[in-house]
Amino acid sequence: MQKKTRRPRNTNFRLEPRRRPVVHLLGEAPDIDLTERVLYRDPMVLVIDKPAGLPVHAGPSGGPNLEAGLASLMFEAKDRPALAHRLDRDTAGCLALGRGEKGLKRLGRLFREGLVGKVYWAVVEGGPVDDRGEVTAPLLKTNTTAGWRVDIDAAGKPARTRWQVLGRGDGFAWMAFQPATGRTHQVRVHAASLGCPIVGDTQYGATVAAPMHLLARSLTLPLYQERPPVVVEADPPDHMRKRLRALGWR
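and the corresponding structure tokens:
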């Protein structure tokens, strides 16, 4: 009897849950070693330092995307990790991945219930009058020919962001943002609503031509009931460091 050969497993697709199975091609993997960008790893969770300029999903214009390269982060697991949340293309920093169904479900619950602590660092043009405060402004997301656009609108979803100024100087400010909700472009739009758009964020009013100065600085993940929360931090990308140092970082 001829022995059947096992066909190689195709790991370059994902299935949408609770729907008729539809295959989504993931596109082109990035030409970077993602294993060197791992900030935290345990049997259920990975946190990586996402580079600025790399989208997390394949887009209509093609090009490399993070999700297409996640097979390189399987390590000893049998399945590729999966995205537990998203960061914008031009945002750098902490991005959490679930390892296997159990890890992804646990992270999904933590994000859904607002139990994940998130801190973003940004360099903004100008700066708010006060040193700390909170923005509570609903956000409405619309899809345009140029991509997602988010505006403050009473018809939008509730959104709340705490903020603090960490340094000022030479027409810029270094700010920390703590979003209590997870709306698309939330930190970017709320920063602009304070009259201080993020450097490089021309979509929401920035005038300085530069890569966007926004970093997902840290995640606090209460993953395990009888252990302290896992706290993971990412260092600023190269394009942010000069301005941050001028404002007092390190």
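(Above: one complete record from the training split.) The chain has three helices and 14 strands.
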